[in-house]
Amino acid sequence: MEFFAGRKVVIATMHKKEEVIVPVLKQLGLIPVIPKYFDTDRFGTFSGEIERLNDPLQTARLKCKAASEQYDCSLAISSEGSFGPHPGILFASADDEIVVLSDLQNGLEFKARIVTTNTNFYGAVMKSWQDVEQFANAALFPSHAIIARKEKNALDGIVKGIHTWEKLREVALTYLHTQEQFFLETDMRAMFNPTRMKVIEEVTLKLLSSIRCLCPQCKTPGFDVIEVVAGLPCELCSLPTKSTLSHVFGCQKCNYTEERRYPHQKTCESPMYCDWCNP
To answer: How far apart are CA 125 and CA 172, in angstroms?
Structure first.
């Protein structure tokens, strides 16, 4: 892509995310810069030793800014993940993944987000080796690593990156020898979690699609959705529902906007989702 061709971009990661991000960036003609050491743990850790003080989007932006400054590069890309209950599916865990490409030279920001149930995120109390084996198999171990700690949320004595049965047995039996139970959880760092790494690849590809969408007026990349408009009419009573009627696309550079109706290829909604027909 001519807009980015030949420019350097620093990958703001210490967890090997470049393995899936770099091939995507090369499709834009970018030249990736892989940091020898860039401390992303200072922005927060999944295991809780360092609290994340900002929301995921702001955290990703801060990573980009710090990497740009540290490596004197006007382009930086970072991702930030959050894990917990799915916002729309009961009893399901979710990976909420955001990726941000910051262009300081042109004052532009490109971002994409995916919320998916494709995650092994889980944690549980262990009281026996049988519990450990059951947990490990459900957590896709040993291809996916595990974290052990004395109890849930305990910050002392954490053992991260366990990825062999020998190490897991050693840690588990050590805990069970000194206490009745301990806590295991999935290690969500990208380099220890192939499932999460795949989601990072997917959201980066989504970012690529967004960047390739050019403003119809000034041809700046990243002509993307800036507003979701509700109001899709009910097919029975024709009154507006809460379902999406249109997407408003906008340009960061010239502020041109364009409303596109029926983004989900639906011109009306089922009465099941109408507050009037199904109150």
So the answer is: 11
